[in-house]
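Support case: 3-methyl-2-oxobutanoic acid complex. Customer-provided input:
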Amino acid sequence: MRPAKVTADIIRAMKARGEKIAALTAYDFPMTRLLDEVGIPFILVGDSLGMVVLGFPDTTHVTMADMEHHTRAAARAKPRALLVADMPYRSYETVADAVVNARRLVAAGAEAVKAEGGQEIIEQVRAIVAAGIPFCGHLGMLPQHVLEEGGYHVKGKKETEHLTLLADADALVAASAFAIVLELLAPPVAKEISRRIPLPTIGIGAGPDCDGQILVTPDLLGMLPWFSLKHVKPKLNAAEQMRAVIHEWRAGVSSGAV
Ligand code: KIV
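Agent response - structure generated as follows:
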């Protein structure tokens, strides 16, 4: 018998049960199906799509149409996992936009949405949750702000940042988010937030003390040999293996052996 469908409530309850949450990104049908077959409970159609699939330098180029297209492809895998879609850059600047665009992602097949920020987007979060759409927060380094920030920097080391992060996490709890991604957060601050709030924290480059971990799947699989990241060492050299197979096939075609 197929295990029960994962819902946002189930993800939230995993923390209370002391179960660590393994989350990964997918942008299409085959990867969603693979991750689901392995039993990953939380699959994110991330706006990292912009860099790892669409070839943009950062996530600020990703549009609602891009997110809908890739969410539809991922949703065709009908995963048992909770399928979460990122709200792209500038798609939640007003409360009205946030609700319209979160509904568009749900119509494309998302079962929950994620957006970046804390207190500054809390009215949007409340409105999305009031519309019946489960919401996942995202605090710490906010990739949609990379241009203003001038790069990807670890957050929470300064006392002012630390206090703001605690207040942001509390605000997301009060607004009924079901989980919070913590990206590039100083590990002691990620630990403090994880202990402080009842929601699961899902870390990326935020140390081992979060309630779960998330990675951009192509980074984990070594599919992007042109970039290196401090927070993830690929567990597979997929790009190298693919090159070798393609090389061998091409040589076979050239020699007439294939
Ligand atoms: O877009 C994305 O893939 C994300 C993860 C880095 C959490 O937001």
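The first helix runs from residue 8 to 16.

Case will auto-close in a few days if no follow-up is received.
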